[in-house]
From TrEMBL:
Belongs to the short-chain dehydrogenases/reductases (SDR) family. InterPro entries: NAD(P)-bd_dom_sf, SDR_fam. This is SDR family oxidoreductase. The lineage of its organism: Bacteria, Pseudomonadati, Pseudomonadota, Alphaproteobacteria, Sphingomonadales. It comes from Altererythrobacter arenosus. Keywords: Oxidoreductase. SUPFAM superfamilies: NAD(P)-binding Rossmann-fold domains. The keyword Oxidoreductase applies.
Length: 251
């Protein structure tokens, strides 16, 4: 590789959790950088609207990452549209918020099924297809969180799932290194999204922000550069790494 470029022209990407929030932004960013993008999520109407906004480079792919059958069908649809996916962004997730002493068992199971099992299955199916097709520059990015290594009261199930995502990514990176597939994670800090919007308008939410070194929340754009780097050829020598993008919140 000579020089550095975040141009993703020729790449065929699949983004999960793409119907809103960070996933929708990731889909736009990858497409704007030249990739063809399959937008995966459960809410078909939102996916169709986003795909229409992006244009011919995007396709809506309805899928529930808690179901392996859905994930396989999603990859089938992406391949039918663009060919073998060589760039995967496993972003789908739920917050699983609530004090763990009061959280119902089914909510714990749902959080782990979507955030952890779903990320592993999404990465695994992508890697299987890349290896079968002889893809030599595969890129898999899993979205973790700073809660994976910071004590997070009220987010026990969520933080456990994200810690699992980080370790799973490192282990998958080792398994697939000789296949040319780079597997990395991005651990964002607190960003205002539809999931947490109401919390940061409360007095406790405002106090939390006031404790951050920069006394602010990150903007979604704070993840753009890391995402583009890890999906590009410039990340050839980066695998098994975690990129903490938190605006200094954990300092």
């Amino acid at each position: 590789m000579s020089g550095f470029s975040f141009d993703l022209s020729g790449r065929k990407a699949l983004v999960t959790g793409a119907s809103s929030g960070l996933g929708a932004r990731f889909g736009r960013i990858l497409a704007n950088s030249g990739a063809q993008v399959a937008l995966g999520a459960r809410r078909a109407d939102r996916l169709q609207a986003l795909a229409g906004e992006i244009g011919e480079q995007a396709r809506a792919v309805q899928m529930d990452v808690a179901s392996e059958a859905d994930i396989i069908a999603g990859y089938d649809a992406a391949e039918a549209a663009f060919g073998t996916v060589d760039t995967v962004v496993a972003n789908a997730g739920v917050d699983g918020a609530g004090m763990i002493a009061d959280m119902p068992e089914d909510e714990i199971e749902r959080t782990l099924a979507i955030n952890l099992k779903g990320a592993i299955l999404t990465a695994r199916e992508g890697a299987r297809r890349m290896m079968a097709a002889g893809v030599e520059r595969g890129r898999i990015v899993l979205i973790a969180s700073i809660t994976a290594f910071e004590p997070s009261p009220g987010l026990v199930a969520y933080s456990a799932s994200k810690a699992g995502v980080k370790q799973a990514a490192r282990s998958m990176a080792r398994e697939w290194a000789r296949a040319g597939i780079c597997v990395n994670t991005i651990s964002p800090g607190y960003i205002r999204t539809a999931i947490n919007d109401a919390w940061f308008d409360t007095d406790l939410g405002k106090k939390q922000v006031a404790r951050f070194p920069k006394r602010r929340l990150m903007g979604e754009e704070g993840l753009d550069a890391a995402l583009l780097f890890l999906c590009s050829d410039a990340a050839e020598f980066v695998t098994g790494s975690d990129f903490v993008m938190d605006d200094g919140q954990t300092l």
